[in-house]
Every structure is written in structure tokens, then in C-alpha cells.
Amino acid sequence: MKNPIRVAVTGAAGQIGYSLLFRIASGAMFGPDQPVILQLIEAPVEKALKALEGVVMELDDCAFPLLQGVVQTSDASVGFKDANWCLLVGAKPRGPGMERADLLKDNGRIFIEQGRIIDAVAATDARVAVVGNPANTNCMIAASQARRLPADRFTAMVRLDQNRARTQLARKAGVHLTQVRDIFIYGNHSPTMFPAFAHATVSGRPATSVITDNAWLQGPFCEAVGKRGAAIIAARGASSAASAANALVDHVRSLMTPGAIHSIAVKSNGHYGFDANVWAGMPVITTTPGSYEVITGYAMDAFAQSKIAATNKELVEERSFVAEMLG
Ligand code: NAX
Fold first, then answer.
1. In this predicted structure, what is the pLDDT of residue 323?
2. pLDDT of 78-91, one tens digit each?
3. Average per-residue pLDDT in the chain?
4. Mapping DSSP to helix (H, G, I), strand (E, B) and coil, where does residue 145 land?
5. What dihedral do alpha carbons 48, 53, 56, 57 form, nearest 10°?
6. 54 in ligand 1 pocket by Cβ < 6 Å?
């Protein structure tokens, strides 16, 4: 029997948590022979903690063979203790009439605190994946607090956007989505993100030679991927949850699979013209479990450069709203 992986999850009683925890405990994230211990962190709010109790009762009732323990707490220093993976799903939602700058600052305070505590108490090999919005900037903020853990351990999720883009291309081309490869997301997890269709392939051929409607690729395709979250809210009356949880399973599983090529938001280091020190979506290849290298070789045409410039501008602006918090 392998040693269990300790997985800390914030926002564990929320919508995404409710789809996510059962998949982690069933082996979908780390594999069918990898035991896990779930360390579930909720806000210190009675309703949330009560809901978490119910979720833990349901985890008990699943009798998952791989689940070796569950911690439930509102104390982040207990929840992140010795965690190998820290999945930061909980965040403050945007309230009615709330300015984007205020949302960034409110979440900034949460992610400063969580980044500091993770750096102090998580396992030496800890990896952090941020889902709570604004995910890229929250990730940058958490990483800013790390002294022990290197910045490349902090990633944010753009995999839902990659999965959405893959399905849209497959539909347009009239093929099964497994025929679509190498579609990567650049920039912010927001409507400014850029799904770089020029590098994608469909059935082994360049996507642009299979889908020759360039106006569709540049317009409705990019827009549909960027605004898919809003379309789901309009249809379902609630934001994406099961698909977001599924994307996080994909994000972590790809990061644990050497050779996997996928999109994650990482510290830019100036790649593809992104400002150094913002966290931007880009393609990576997993090298060893949990580690990756950015794939830097994709050429960007004028259209792609303009899309990257726009999403970079938004990331730089988000950073400026919280600059004084970063220390
Ligand atoms: P919910 O509002 O259902 O759940 C969030 C949970 O987080 C709540 O239970 C709340 O009590 C908890 N929480 C708040 N502050 C906390 C803190 N400081 N510590 C621990 N827990 C805390 O939201 P849900 O639908 O689950 O979405 C969670 C986050 O994911 C949101 O920020 C949402 O915007 C974001 N999303 C990100 C996506 C992505 O692709 N990166 C897609 C889906 C989703 O919209």
C-alpha cells in the first residue's frame, strides 16, 4: 500500500467541493491505487461548517476504500498541515454592485493569509492549484507569500477553458473531441482568455485547414469559450460546478503524469510577451510528477499577439489593484 497523499481543499462545502471531493476520494485524481486523506477547510461561518459536516457524512457513506481519513476545520493552519496538494477552491464571490477592485482586494486578503500558512505548514513537496476567482491573480497573491516553496509550485486552473475549447472545435469540425489536440489557453481565466486555435490539430491536421472559417475561429469561437461560464449561469441559474471540479481533476492528474501536455496558469517569466510576475495560462509539459516546463516555441501571428496583449493588460491591471498588499 502506498503512503496516502494529503489533499487540502478550501471551500469544501461549496458547489464545486460537492462535485470534487467524491472524485478525489474515488481515485479519479491520483489513481486507483493511491490512498488519500482529505483535509477540508471552510470559512468560519456556522452555515458553511454545518454543510461541511453533511458532506463528510456523505463521504463516510460512500465507504471509499482509498479514503484513509478526513479532517474538517475552519483553521487553515490545521487544514494545510503537511498537505501535499492544496486545492484553493473557496473564494469570496462578487456581490451585487461590487467593484472588481474591491473583489480583488477582499480575495487578496484571503489568499495572502492562505499563501503564508501553506508556506509555513504544508509538506515540503506541496503543490498549490487555485480555482477560486479571480484565479490567476489569487494564485499570484498566494505565491507572493511563499519563502520556502518555489513560485512554480503555484498554478491556477484554465483547464475548464481548454476542455470547453476542445469540445467547441470538435463540434465545428464534426469529429469526436479525442480527434482534437493541442488547443491551449493563454492568459487570464476571464472572457479575455485566448484559446490559440492556430496550433490545434484535428485528426492530425492543422485545425485551420479543417475549419477554414477563420472569421468563426477569431470571433464566435473565442467568444463562446470566453463567455461559456456566463452562458452556464444563464441556463442553470448557478455557475459551473461539476465541469469545474472535473477540470481540476484533469489539471492535477495531468500535472502528475510525466509527458502530459496541457494548459495551466503559471508565473510568466516573460513568456509569449506576458508581463513577468503575472500568472498567465500557457502550455506546459509535465516533466516529473508535480513538475513541468513551459512550452515556449509556439509562434504567434498578429491576431494571436493582439489577443495576448489584451489578456495580459487585464492581468497587469488586476495586479495593480492589489500591488500594495504584496509586500
Ligand atoms: P460556492 O460559493 O458554492 O462555494 C465557495 C465556498 O468557499 C463556500 O462554501 C464558502 O463558505 C467557502 N469559502 C469562502 N471563503 C473561504 C475561506 N477563506 N476559506 C475556506 N473556504 C472559504 O462557490 P463554487 O461554485 O464552489 O465556486 C468556487 C470558486 O470557483 C468561485 O470563486 C468561482 O468563481 C470559481 N470558479 C472558477 C473556475 C475556473 O475555471 N477557475 C470555474 C468555476 C468557478 O466559477
1. 93
2. 999 999 999 999 99
3. 96
4. coil
5. -140
6. no
Cβ(260)–Cβ(162) below 8 Å: no
Task: Determine the pLDDT at residue 99.
Answer: 83
> Does 136 sit in the ligand 1 pocket, CB within 6 Å?
no
Architecture per CATH, 5-156: 3-Layer(aba) Sandwich (3.40)
The single-letter DSSP state of residue 300 is: -
The atom of ligand 1 lying closest to the CA of 16 is: 26
Report the C-alpha gap between 264 and 184 in whole angstroms.
9
Cα-to-centroid distance, 244 and ligand 1 (Å): 11
Residue numbers annotated as active site? 189
Whether the ω angle into residue 65 lies within 30 degrees of 0, i.e. cis, is: no
- Please report, rounded to a whole number, the percentage of residues in the chain having pLDDT higher than 70: 100
Task: Say yes or no: domain 159-323 is CATH 3.40.50.12780.
Answer: no
CA of 174 to the centre of ligand 1 (A): 35
Closest Cα to atom 32 of ligand 1 = 132
Q: Is the CB of residue 66 less than 8 Å from the CB of residue 23?
A: no
